[in-house]
Amino acid sequence: MENIQTAGSQHHEPEFNTKPIWRTFWILLGITLVELVLATIHLKTGFPPKFVLNGVYLILTCAKAFYIIAEFMHLRHELKNLIMTVAIPATLFIWFIISFLYEGNSYKELRNRYDRHHLEMSKEKAPAAEGEHEGHEPAAKKPGAAE
Amino acid sequence: MAHSVPAGQKWWSGGKSPFNVEYGKLMMWYFLMSDAFTFGAFLISYGSIRFATNGWPDPNEVFRAFPLMGETHLPLVFVSLMTFILIMSSVTMVLAVAAGHQNDRKKVTFYMILTIIGGFMFLGCQAWEWTHLHSEGAWWGKNPFVNADGSAATTNFTNFFFTITGFHGFHVFSGVIINIIMLIKNLRGDFDKRGHYLMIEKAGLYWHFVDLVWVFVFTCFYLL
C-alpha cells in the first residue's frame, strides 16, 4: 500500500472494466423479471401463498440491493475499512424493521381486542360510491388534506 | 488495491489513508448513509402502519393501468418498465464513470447524456402515474380505493404512497440536475483540466443510490 495518495491519482485503478457492469445489469433485470413472473402466477392461480411470496420478494430485493451497492457503487472493490464503515451502521435496519413491524402488529391486536367498535367498523363494507370522481366535493375533504 | 494490503496493516497510526478514497467521495458515502436512514424511516413507518391496520388496498388493483391502453388490467407492467428505465440509466452512469477512469471525455459526455435521458424518462413515467391516480380521486388525504376485502380503507395508503414516491421522485429530479451540471462541466473540459473525473464518480454514487431506493420502494408498494 502506498502512502497517502488518493485523490487525483488516476493510475491506480485499472481494474474498472465494463464486463461486470453488464453482468450486473442482466442479473438485476433477471431478478426483476422473476419477481414479475411470480406475481403474475400468484394473481392467476394463487399458488405460492402470499406470505411465502413476500419472503421471496424480500430476499430478491436484498439481492438486488447487494448487486447495486457492490458493483454499481463499486463498494466491493474498496478497502475493507470503507466497506465496514458503511455496512455496520446499515445492520441497524435489521433491528428497526423487526421491532417496528412487531410494534405495529401488537398495536393492531390490542386495539382489536379492547376496541370492539373499531373491529366492527373495519369489517364493514365500503359505501358503493367509492372510486367515482367526486374528490373535489367538500364532503370528501378530510382534515390535513393537501390543496 | 484491496488485494495488495499486507495482513496486520496498522491503518490508524498515521501515514496511511485508511479508506483510500478522496475526501468528497467518503463524504458522499456518509451523506448517502444518512439519506438511507431517512428513506428507511419512511418505509419502516409505512410498514408499521400497515401492520397496525386491519385492511389494506390490493396494490394489483390500484396500480393496474398503462399509458394509452385505456381501462386495462395490467398490474405491475408499468412499474416494471419504470424499474427497467432506472436500472438502465444506472448502467449508463457506471459506463460514464468507467470512461472517466480512462479520461475519455467524449465517452463521458455520451453516457452522461444517456443517463440524463433515462432520468427524464423515469420522471415522465412518474408524472403520468401521479396524474392517473389523481384523476381517479387519489391524493394526500383522499383515498378512493377500498381494501382488498371490500371494507373502507384509511387515507394512510395514499398518504404514504404520495409522500414516499414523491420524496424519491424529488431525489431523481435533483439527481438529474446534478448530472446536467456534471455534463456541462465535462463539456467545458473542467475535469480534463483537473486531471481526474472524481466528480462524475460522486454524482454516480448519488444516482445509483436513487436506483437503490427505488428497488425498495418497488418492493414495498407494488409487490408486498
Your description of this structure?
The complex is a heterodimer of chains A (147) and B (224). With 147 residues, chain A is mostly helical. In chain A, 63% of the residues lie in helices and 0% in strands. In chain A, helix 1 runs antiparallel to helix 2 (50-72) and helix 4 packs across helix 5. Residues 1-14 and 130-147 of chain A have low confidence and may be disordered. Chain B is 68% helix and 0% strand. Chain B contains seven helices and no strands. Chain B has helices at 23-51, 59-62, 77-101, 105-135, 156-187, 190-194, 198-223. In chain B, helix 1 (23-51) runs parallel beside helix 7, helix 3 (77-101) runs antiparallel to helix 4 (105-135) and helix 4 runs antiparallel to helix 5. Classes of the chains: A mainly alpha (147), B mainly alpha (224). At the A-B interface, helix 1, helix 2, helix 3, helix 4 and helix 5 of A face helix 1, helix 3 and helix 7 of B.
Which keywords apply here?
heterodimer; A: 147 residues; mainly alpha; 0% strand; disordered C terminus; B: 224 residues; Four Helix Bundle (Hemerythrin (Met), subunit A)
Kindly summarize this structure in a few lines:
The complex is a heterodimer of chains A (147) and B (224). By secondary structure, chain A is mainly α. Chain A has 5 helices and no strands.
Fold-level CATH name of chain B: Four Helix Bundle (Hemerythrin (Met), subunit A)
> Which range does the strand content of chain B fall in?
under 5%
**Fraction of residues in helix of chain A:** 55-70%
Tell me the CATH architecture of chain B. Answer: Up-down Bundle
Helix-strand category of chain A: mainly alpha
From the spread of the alpha carbons, the general shape of chain A counts as flat
Rounded mean pLDDT score of chain B: 91
- How much is the radius of gyration of chain B in Å? 21 Å
Radius of gyration of chain A, in Å, reads 24 Å
CATH superfamily of chain B: Cytochrome c oxidase, subunit III, four-helix bundle
SSE string of chain B, helix = H, strand = E?
HHHHHHH
Largest interface: A-B, 82 and 84 residues
Q: Count of DSSP E strands of chain B? A: 0
Shape of chain B: globular
